Amino acid sequence: MIDGDPLCRVLHIDLSRRRFWVTDRRDLFEKYLGGTGIAIQLLKEECPEGIDPFSPDNPIIFAVGPLTGVFPIASKTVAMFKSPHTGNLGESHAGGRSAVAIRMAGYGAIVVKGASETPVYLVVESDRIHFRDASALWGMASFTAGRALREKEPGAGTRTIMRIGRAGERLVRYACVITETYRHFGRLGLGAVFGSKKLKAIMVCGKRSLKVTDPVQYREVYSEIFESLVKSPAMRKYHDLGTAMNVNVLNEAGALPTRNLEKARFESANEISGERFREKHLGRRIACAHCPVSCVHLAALREPYETEPYFYKTRMVCYDYEPIYALGAMIGVSSTEGLLRLSDEVEALGLDAISAGVVLAWATEAQQKGLVSDGESGGLKLRWGDHETYLKVLRLIVEQPTDFYGALAKGVDYASSVYGGGDFALAFGGNEMPGYHTGPAAYIGYLTGARHSHLDGAGYSVDQKHLGSASRQTADTVAEAVFSEESWRQVLSSLVICYFGREIYTVDNVLKTLRLVGYELAPEDLAKLGREVLKAKHCFKKRESFDFRKLRIPKRILETATPVGRISESFISEAIQSYERKLIA
Hints:
Layout: E1 9-14, E2 19-24, H1 26-32, H2 35-46, E3 60-63, E4 77-82, E5 89-94, H3 98-104, E6 109-113, E7 120-125, E8 128-133, H4 142-152, E9 160-163, H5 166-169, E10 177-179, E11 183-185, H6 190-196, E12 199-205, H7 215-231, H8 233-240, H9 246-253, H10 274-280, E13 282-286, E14 296-304, E15 312-319, H11 321-327, H12 336-349, H13 353-368, H14 387-399, H15 403-408, H16 412-419, E16 427-428, E17 431-432, H17 440-448, H18 459-465, H19 475-494, H20 507-515, H21 523-543, H22 556-559, H23 569-584
Parallel strand pairs: 1-6, 7-12
Antiparallel strand pairs: 1-2, 3-4, 3-6, 4-5, 7-8, 9-10, 9-12, 10-11, 13-14, 14-15, 16-17
């Protein structure tokens, strides 16, 4: 680490006492680099064992890395906390400007603890920290709150504004935190932790400068990585279609979960594909700070005013593969306009789109099977593809006027424990499934997941790499592949490198970039770090009562064929046991 690098500074904020202080944690940053590696160590230090996730003592940790602001696409911020959704490790990553803003403010990590008695938002301007009254913002949609803060606070163009919507205020267990409108700390309920602390938003800005060890070599390495990012076919696809390109690819492979995974192909997939969105709605592409790829695609949704049919309003709505899966194929919505309206509502309310879609899918099937009465749903009849009714249900999940909607606000694991239907309740370790029904490795990743993300594990990637030889894979070789891939990804997330660039940031490139910011490491050092961080995260989960032996495998995933055939429950169980042995080895 370069002497004087502000990365080692950790900002501590106590909302209860409205005070703050800074500690120097060079000891951690020299060993764990940043991001995920630092966050899990701080979480272990700051989070009391067995604490209620909604307790004031549940910390929120934000961490960035040594490449942030120095090299391209080291643009993620890692958030860690005890998840109210699963009761153990909560980890979520967001892009936008959050990482660069925290780094430029002069910090490598921020720790928020305590709880305010009244709504509050934080303003971090380098060494000046302000506690602002958020009473006027409480109850606002995420869009409106963001606009109000942009107009009131300084730092335009360099700041980040992280805020919650009504879902977080109402403690919906899968509420998210929105940053820069189109990026999110999406999964595992960070928004609800914000809400429990009466914390509406955090704004961060700063203008620090950063140093490198050799400016001449830095320019050479920077140019090499930059050119690879903008010219690589692997990255070009993210710019052209974004992750929405996966809709048709996965549908053709028979891996697109449809109508609560009753099927793995959606007959209307092409109507909600990346190609169709580009043709009908693409309004613009935007990028996270210090990223040349511009993978964020915004759709222009044009709708008439209700009272003025000849006048139209246009809203920009972000679309990615996962919201298209969750609010499209998973609930049978085949209209791009309907899907965008659902996405827009999810954004305004501040819900995780994936969990919200899977909850809607379970509720639809549960009602159709007679597990939920019309009276319990408030007279609403949920039907596949009926986006108008789904819009009403989303609002009711946030408001929770009845026991049924209160149960849905806690996720499908909880709802199915009350109403039945566990066989088709698609949650893994308490977290609703992502949009990849690719094979056994994906589900091993979901069940054992030790990181953030819509995917919660790298198993989908293992499935895709071994499609041709899947029949020859044993439970142990699949577990080894998942463990190996996960270990390396802990290195990338400790450097807060976007996973889209994982083919560019090879071991050699990572070592070159680290030397220029003061770290002299060898390949074996990175391998050791990845394994150590992965094991530390699982130790925290185990400490908070996670138990491999208690994992529930929904029968639905065994009934619907994947691209490699039907999944065997015994195969998954054996692979999980093998994976656990690798963690404790």
